[in-house]
Structures are given as structure tokens and as C-alpha cells.
Amino acid sequence: MKYTLTIESDSAEDIRSVTEKLTGRADTTVAPATETVATTTTTAPAAEETKTAPTGDVAVDGIGMPYDDAIHASPPSFKSDGSWKVKKGQADAAKTAIAAFKAAGGNVTPPVIEQPAAAPSGMPGTETKTAPVGMPGAAPIPAAEPVALDVVMAKWTGLMESGALSAERATEICVQVTGNADATTHYPTFQTNETARAALYAELNAIEAG
């Protein structure tokens, strides 16, 4: 059997609403698309690593240079390349000291210097003569005037840069003045020994005078 349903209305919207209710259709609303915003996270660059110098008897950096509280940061610490961290405002002084240390043979195996054999007793020229008391020339030689380390290093650097002082000659002078062939001891000796420092300064002045 067939049934006919007639819907009369002056509004098309009313007819559509009734039809949807009869057929079971629901009003479908399309939700607006959600915008996705990409977020970029920027990672700050890592700061330069500073290594704290180990405590104990270690007193040299990666190039073998001893710690100097006049030019190196306190407490002692190393830069990423293994060298001492420089005290603020002492960059130029540190460069001069490093140049002098390397020129003197720092961290380099020193050449072997043959010591002359002692002459047998009684050989000509082996007699030691002592000037009699009161004789001219018997008075002790006065000690050299002390010279600041930075003055010596400035003279050293100037002669090296001008070519008047070669690395080989510099090593010879350091061995002669300190009496030690171990190059790693030269710079520490000049830091603490005023006599050796004055003797080195005298040698540099002689080279400068030609």
C-alpha cells in the first residue's frame, strides 16, 4: 500500500526542517580548520669551556709554562686549548711572556751540552791564584742592579722581532746565565732570581749594542 504525505508551507526553510526530521538527517556543520603554528626553539650556543687547574704540585699549562700570578687568572684555570687563562687587562703582558718562554726553548727538549773534562792535577793552567788581601782588584765585584722581569722581556721580544736575537742564541744565553740546560727551568729562574735576570739583561744589552 502506498501513502502520500503532502506538506504545505509558505517557507522553504520550514519544509526543509520537516523533511530532515522525517528522514532522520542531522544538520551537519563543518568545523573551521585549526591553524597549526610551528614553533622554533633556538638553543643558545655553549659557552667556552674553562677547565679549573688541578690542585697539588701541577704548576704548568699545556705548553709547559709555569703559572705566574702577575699575568694569569686567579684561581689558576685553563682555557680550552690547555693554556693558562689570562688575568683581565694583562693580555699584552701574557703574549710577551709566552713569546719569551717559547723563544727560550720552553716545552722543547734542550740540546745536550758536553761538559769539558777536568784537567788532571798538576797540569799547566790548573793552578788557582788568589789575589792577596789589599792588592788592587781584590775587592768583591758589586752585585748588578735588579731589573724588573717585564723590562727584560720587553728587551727580549724587541731583539727577537728585529732578528738581532735568534732562537738558538737565546737558548745558549739562557743556559749560560742560569747554568742549567733544562729549558723548562729558565723562565721560572728569571721570575725569582734577580741575579740571573740582571745577567740576562746585560747580555741582551750587549747584543743590542752590537
Topology diagram in text:
Blueprint: H1 12-23, E1 51-52, E2 77-78, H2 91-103, H3 149-162, H4 167-178, H5 186-192, H6 194-209
Antiparallel strand pairs: 1-2
Helix pairs in contact: 2-3, 3-6, 4-6, 5-6
Structure, described:
This protein has 210 residues and is an all-alpha fold. The protein has a domain at 51-108 and 144-209. The chain has helices spanning 12-23, 91-103, 149-162, 167-178, 186-192, 194-209, and strands at residues 51-52, 77-78. Helix 2 (91-103) packs across helix 3 (149-162) and helix 3 (149-162) runs parallel beside helix 6. It is rod-shaped and about 135 Å long.
Short description:
The protein has 210 residues and is mostly helical. 35% of the residues lie in helices and 2% in strands.
